[in-house]
Write a structure and sequence with these properties.
CATH class of the largest domain in chain B: Mainly Alpha
Mean pLDDT of chain A: 88
CATH class of the largest domain in chain A: Alpha Beta
Low-confidence stretches of chain A: 1-38
Number of strands of chain A: 10
Strand content of chain A: 15-25%
CATH architecture of the largest domain in chain A: 3-Layer(aba) Sandwich
CATH superfamily of the largest domain in chain A: Periplasmic binding protein-like II
Low-confidence stretches of chain B: 277-283
Number of strands of chain B: 0
Number of helices of chain A: 13
CATH topology of the largest domain in chain B: MetI-like fold
Helix content of chain B: over 70%
Number of helices of chain B: 12
Strand content of chain B: under 5%
Order of helices and strands of chain A: HEHEHEHEHEHHEHEHEHHEHEH
CATH architecture of the largest domain in chain B: Orthogonal Bundle
Radius of gyration of chain B: 23 Å
Oligomer: heterodimer
Number of domains of chain B: 2
Largest sheet of chain A: 10 strands, mixed
Distance between the termini of chain B: 14 Å
Number of domains of chain A: 2
Mean pLDDT of chain B: 87
Helix content of chain A: 25-40%
Structural class of chain A: alpha/beta
Distance between the termini of chain A: 48 Å
Order of helices and strands of chain B: HHHHHHHHHHHH
């Protein structure tokens, strides 16, 4: 009997926790709103992103002002999961309307699992080159930053991305997230002397060879949160980590500083899963969220760079320090969405086998 | 408890029906779908299986997973057997304390327990500092050994509880009888107690083994990509590669292996449990 009570209690707690995650209602001051793109109002949209402060900030920067202007209510769901989208579409029951996710996925499965967009509703000239396609627009931009522990390397800090791979001159543990869409293979090739303009088609074997040479000094973290933890706990003396996580790690007190040399950048994409019953409203929201004001607001809150190049975010000191997109901070190379959309699976397969081998 | 003949008119099979129906719809059907898909997507045949066994890594990972599962079972059994024994002979108050200690982990979130291990095992953490006192450099985080240790702790209750429930039913007078007939305590334990507790051993080992095979959080958090277990490969296949059919094939292989192991355990354990059943009737 007692055990039954415990089981019931645990189940109830789990459900509470689940519903708690799902219903983080956005709140915050409504920002200035541009004229509606298409005449749909009201309704309900299910917005899916990566949860945590990231999604809460999107609620403040994008969802709340959209609600204020259009009386649309939002359901928040997550985490963004492409396997779930595939299952939903195949099952014929799409419940997600707007997803913040991988541009490679949106491009590869454009028309199959992802709705085509009416690009006339967007000012595509305002997006960075190569970040928009028939099925997705950029949501935010980030760089894969090379950061190092200032206590360990303070006397003679690394200055170029090649130093990450130089364990002789800079001995110590390295951390990197084993997620191809963060751009670690590109970073390896840039460090190996490939010119930023000549990265694609990607020489995957050469990139893996570069990591292979420092393999015993490298921790391959499962996600950015884990890498952030490794840097904070000084389990890793250097890291290749995405912008927003570098900032939150530094703000949490970890003594890290960035190296600006050749930086790889990528975008998260906003797209509409195939079969969403609210496609028009969702498209209107996409157009709204990628406008300069909303883009800037989210960048200020999250530390990612705006996907809209005309946005003018005002950063705090720490964010400024880690902003790879600012003037005079080396080269920025946007990952090639087309190449990745075609080669993601083969590359991931190769990478998985290399990692586990 | 005395039998209640009045209730006899309800066929007992009917009582299983709701559970059976739920299992069929919520488990049987999806499982069938997964297995079918692994043989039909993209083409009918064994492509998913041959591709998997040829990729040079899946076989290694499956063997590694089996090795870890067996190690966890052995370690958990060695730790749990004496513990369950003490539980079965302790005073009611002592037993309550021991039971609470076993159940305590169930009340703590699995994540919390795994993160606790993470802190204990990390570079410069308490475990490493302790061993460095003896001049030993012990690296647990990111290794199979670390994963095995943590999994043993996390899965220990699943070994202790079945063992305890079977030991509790053992009539201890049988041991006295054996000793009064001249058996040394050790012989009495080996010939009477051990076989009688066998059903608990089998149940505990089976549970822990099956749970170990599919364990995800602990290896994902404390292990490393270089030391992946099957569940990590499954996660990559589904979430990163969107290869549902391939993941289904891997899952099916895991299921078949589990089935085979269970069949072997069942065969191996039958003499012991039939002995227990026979002597259980003596009471």
């Amino acid at each position: 009997m007692n055990r039954l009570k415990i089981a019931c209690g645990t189940a109830a707690l789990a459900m509470l926790a689940l519903s708690g995650c799902g219903s983080s209602e956005p709140s915050g001051p409504p920002a200035e709103v541009a004229a509606p793109v298409k005449d749909v109002k009201g309704g309900t949209l299910t917005f899916v992103s990566y949860g945590g402060p990231f999604q809460e900030n999107q609620g403040k920067a994008w969802l709340a002002p959209f609600t204020a202007a259009n009386e649309t209510t939002f359901n928040n769901d997550g985490p963004s999961d492409q396997a779930k989208i595939r299952a939903m579409v195949e099952g014929g029951k799409t419940t997600w309307d707007v997803v913040d996710g991988s541009p490679f996925f949106a491009r590869e499965f454009c028309g199959k699992y992802v709705e085509r967009l009416d690009l006339k509703q967007f000012d595509t000239a305002q997006f960075p080159k190569g970040t928009v396609n028939d099925c997705s627009v950029p949501a935010e931009r980030y760089g894969l930053l090379f950061v190092y522990n200032t206590e360990k390397f303070g006397a003679k800090p690394p200055t170029k991305v090649a130093d990450y791979f130089d364990t002789k001159a800079f001995p110590g543990k390295r951390g990197v997230v084993s997620d191809l869409s963060s751009g670690l293979l590109e970073a390896a090739l840039l460090a190996d002397g490939v010119a930023p303009g000549a990265l694609y088609p990607l020489d995957v074997d050469r990139a893996l060879g570069k990591f292979g040479a420092i393999r015993k000094d490298t921790i391959f973290a499962t996600n950015n949160g884990q890498l952030s933890q490794l840097l904070t706990d000084k389990q890793a003396d250097m890291g290749l980590i995405v912008t927003a996580r570098a900032i939150s790690t530094a703000k949490a007190g970890a003594p890290i500083a960035p190296v600006f040399d050749h930086t790889v950048s990528n975008v998260n994409a906003l797209f509409i899963p195939k079969g969403s019953p609210n496609k028009d409203l969702a498209t209107k929201f996409l157009a709204f969220a990628t406008k300069p004001e909303q883009s800037a607001r989210f960048s200020e809150l999250s530390g990612t760079a705006p996907a809209n190049t005309t946005a003018k975010p005002v950063y705090d000191a720490v964010t400024k320090k880690f902003d790879a997109f600012a003037e005079g901070r080396g080269t920025i190379t946007q990952m090639d969405v087309e190449w990745w959309a075609q080669n993601f699976n083969a590359t991931q397969q190769k990478f998985t086998i290399w990692l586990a081998g | 408890m005395p039998p209640r003949p009045a209730r006899r008119h309800v066929p007992r099979v009917l009582l299983f029906l709701p559970a059976l129906a739920l299992l069929a719809v919520a488990f049987g059907l999806p499982l069938l779908q997964i297995v079918l898909r692994s043989f039909t997507d993209p083409d009918v045949g064994l492509t998913n299986y041959t591709a998997m066994l040829d990729d040079g890594i899946t076989t290694t990972v499956i063997l590694r997973t089996l090795r870890v599962a067996v190690t966890v079972v052995v370690l958990a059994l060695l730790l749990a057997y004496p513990y369950a024994y003490v539980m079965s002979i302790a005073s009611p108050a002592g037993r309550a304390v021991l039971t609470t200690l076993v159940l305590l982990p169930f009340w703590t979130s699995l994540m919390a327990r795994n993160f606790a291990w993470l802190l204990l095992m990390q570079d410069g953490g308490p475990i490493q500092r302790f061993f460095s006192l003896f001049g030993l450099d012990v690296v647990l985080l990111g290794t199979t050994v670390g994963v095995t240790v943590a999994m043993t702790q996390v899965l220990l209750p699943f070994m202790v509880l079945p063992l305890y429930s079977s030991m509790q039913q053992i009539d201890r007078r049988l041991l006295q009888a054996a000793q009064s007939l001249g058996a040394k305590p050790r012989t009495a334990f080996r010939k009477i107690y051990l076989p009688l507790s066998a059903p608990g051993v089998v149940a505990g080992c089976t549970l822990v083994f099956i749970l170990s095979l599919g364990f995800y959080i602990t290896p994902a958090l404390l292990g490393s990509s270089q030391q992946s277990l099957v569940a990590q490969l499954l996660a990559i296949r589904t979430t990163a590669l969107l290869d549902f059919a391939g993941a289904g094939a891997l899952g099916t292989v895991l299921l078949v292996i589990t089935g085979l192991v269970l069949a072997v355990i069942g065969r191996f354990a039958r003499p012991a449990s039939s002995l227990a059943a026979a002597t259980g009737g003596v009471k």
